[in-house]
Amino acid sequence: MNEAEVRERRNAQILAAHRDGVPVVEIARRFGLSLSWTGALLRHRLGADVPETGRGIRCELDAGEVAEAYRDGATVRALAEEHEVSYGKVYRLLKDAGVQFRPRGGRVH
Predict the structure, then answer these.
(1) How many domains does the chain have?
(2) Which Pfam families match (predicted)?
(3) Is 90 contained in some domain?
(4) Phi/psi of residue 14, nearest 5 degrees
């Protein structure tokens, strides 16, 4: 199977998952794609009815849960990777929640 056929097969699986009600976030995770690329692929190349919000798909985070994880020692970067969103999205969410940020560069010994 050549590269184009592999991609076509993958795209058919992505579209089928979307039609089966699998969330776009989960589809992106399954296929190792970014959330924004998966949304754009579904929307523009595969003709799926996926809402367009900014550059990708709106991903709502639980501010309390994210803030608690940060207070328990998780880094902004680790939280962004865990939730598959940008560093800036996590930072703004924490800032809007009134979280006091730790100094940059880790703990001072």
Answers:
(1) 2
(2) HTH_23 (PF13384), HTH_58 (PF19575)
(3) yes
(4) -65, -45
Confidence of residue 56 (pLDDT cuts 50, 70, 90): very low
83 and 106, same domain (yes or no): yes
| Neighbour tally for 85: CB within 10 Å | 19
* Residue labelled with tokens 């990777």: 81
Is the residue at 53 inside a domain?
no
Report d(CA 67, CA 93) in Å as an integer. 8
> Is residue 47 predicted with pLDDT exceeding 50?
yes
Euclidean distance between CA atoms 98 and 109, whole angstroms:
26
Q: Residue 45 is which amino acid? A: R
Q: What is the pTM of this model?
A: 0.48
Termini Cα distance of the chain: 56
37 and 73 fall within a common domain: no
Question: Do 65 and 35 fall into the same domain?
Answer: no
